[in-house]
Amino acid sequence: MLIEALGRILPFSPEQVFDVIADIERYPDFLPGWRSARIIRRQSNTCYVDQVLTLSFLRVQIATEAVLVRPSRIEISSSDRRFRAFSCSLRIAEAGSSGCTLSIVAELKLRSDFLQQVLNRARLISFDGILSAYEARVHQIYDASRR
């Protein structure tokens, strides 16, 4: 599964959006399917994360690395042997007076062709849903502070 780019404009600063996305241990509070996300170790701008996701009937534990490049992007990868390829780039860019754009570029290829077909057909991962969840979380946090 290759997602070239999904994006949207948010009426917030890149720093605000980055802070929400970089708060990895809060993912279970707002991202669909996330049951846990725990930072095991931090090294410079890299977080080593243990996560548990539930995707329909599947429960998946995965170790990832998140490289935080404030405030423009977060690069997530995994060397888990179940994947041929696993990368997700969350990119944040200035959008003038409109705020900023948040986009996702991702590649997710499983070693099992059967499971890859199940994942593709069932659309168990919705990157648009993930973007919507980030957007809702940014509104939840920063709209309240604007009042």
Task: Explain what this protein looks like in three dimensions.
By secondary structure, the protein is α+β, with helices and mostly antiparallel strands. The chain has a single domain, classed as Alpha-D-Glucose-1,6-Bisphosphate, Chain A, domain 4 (2-Layer Sandwich), CATH 3.30.530.20. Helices cover 29% and strands 47% of the residues. The protein has a seven-stranded antiparallel sheet. The longest helix is centred in the C-terminal third of the chain and has 20 residues, at 127-146.
SSE layout and pairing:
Elements lengths: L1 E9 L3 H9 L4 H4 L3 E10 L2 E10 L2 E12 L3 E5 L5 E12 L5 E11 L2 H10 L4 H20 L1
Antiparallel strand pairs: 1-7, 2-3, 3-4, 4-5, 5-6, 6-7
Helix pairs in contact: 1-4
Characteristics:
single chain; 147 residues; alpha+beta; Alpha-D-Glucose-1,6-Bisphosphate, Chain A, domain 4; seven-stranded antiparallel beta sheet; 4 helices; 7 strands; 29% helix; 47% strand
* Cα Rg: 15 Å
Low-confidence stretches: none
- Any idea of the CATH class? Alpha Beta
Find the CATH topology.
Alpha-D-Glucose-1,6-Bisphosphate, Chain A, domain 4
**Integer count of domains:** 1
What is the mean predicted local confidence, pLDDT? 89
Terminal-residue CA separation: 41 Å
Helix and strand succession?
Answer: EHHEEEEEEHH
Instruction: Decide which structural class fits the backbone.
Output: alpha+beta
**Strand line-up across the major sheet:** 1-7-6-5-4-3-2
Note the beta-strand portion.
over 45%
Note the main sheet.
Answer: 7 strands, antiparallel
CATH architecture: 2-Layer Sandwich
- DSSP strand tally: 7
CATH superfamily: START domain
Shape: globular
Number of helices: 4
> What percent of residues adopt helix (DSSP H or I)?
25-40%
